[in-house]
């Protein structure tokens, strides 16, 4: 039976297995779900063995385990390394989900007329990495696995991949490959397939501003003692000027400016601003002056407050002058910004903004480097050919705003080209309530991955 026939005849089971995986709430950020994260790792290992891996193991780390699996057909054949993550973002706020986040249901949406799977992790990244497991099974079952394959599926991507670096450095030989396939990004649409060639980096900070040594009566002391929330708001406001340019000295020093021609090409990607606005129900977009929306997301750095708290937020009113105020602030970075350098620049500047009436603490959570991947490598060309075959249209290269911190490390340490072979859509509500992944995207992804293996072998020999 051909690979595609095998996929067609096993569709229902392929879907049900993914639903089983989605029922495991493997939220890496919240220790409450610790057992489930380990359970998801076991599930991945078992699924690799069932699909035909010679080796599949749950490798311990200082945090959540990394699942490694492989099938070596012939050491002389090219080797594909698949990377993905089985951990998911927290599902909060639960009340905004139309159905429980860990009880997957299939519903139609305007972008997914044939149905989409609604569950936390459906697109990011369980539905996407599992396509590789199923493509592998289909190639094995039909006796047509054209390349060796290795899997490295981690459980800490959503919290910064802290232990993956050590694993990669300690296992360079084991992870040796000719290309690294990662399905954890978007494409433009089913009609406009694309391959991601740029990802932003990230620096994530937390700040604490302290006024008096305790909460105070806001009448007795208000007006005479600093209110740390007021101060924090002012400090945050001064991190950007009226053109939405970030004011941290040195912040843009290493930002690669693209040539007019490169920018023009980037802006040729299909993009409908009116549709973008209407889907988000906003009257206007907002960002750095002088750049288009595609550029603001793809090639420009940002600074955003992810959360801000302090004082009284309960029912009713309480007149209080709080002692402390906090914020979580992240910056998306572009080549060649260095996340550790940016963390330091932020810390110094943020502290310098504080009036003498408050004390400021700044700490760095995690970060990651931006990455740009080749659009001329053998891997890219194989991905292009595979998509052209299944979508009937040549994919275009795009730059995306999200981050996969480990991509830059792969480039540096493993020396093979990562291919960002994502099949999700940007409307799939990643990290938001009602995350979903198209059923059709899942199946076309499986077929395209199998096609990639064929093309990669052929092009590697050429
Ligand atoms: N799948 C995303 C990354 C992504 C999303 C890339 C959309 C391109 C388009 C990934 O799982 C993710 O969410 N990464 C985090 C990284 C962080 C926690 C270090 C992100 O981008 O916020
Ligand atoms: Zn994510």
Automatic annotation (TrEMBL):
Which keywords does UniProt give here?
Hydrolase, Metal-binding, Protease
Mind listing the GO molecular function terms for this protein? metal ion binding; peptidase activity
Ranges where the Peptidase M20 dimerisation domain occurs: 198-356
Q: Some GO term, biological process aspect, for this entry: which one? A: proteolysis
Q: Name one Pfam family in it.
A: M20_dimer
- The organism's superkingdom is given as Bacteria
The record's listing under InterPro entries reads: Bact_exopeptidase_dim_dom, Cyt/Met_Dipeptidase, Peptidase_M20, Peptidase_M20_dimer
Which segment of the chain is annotated as a signal peptide?
A: none
Quote the Gene3D superfamilies the UniProt record gives: 3.30.70.360, Zn peptidases
What name does UniProt use for this protein?
Dipeptidase
- What species was this sequence derived from? Algoriphagus kandeliae
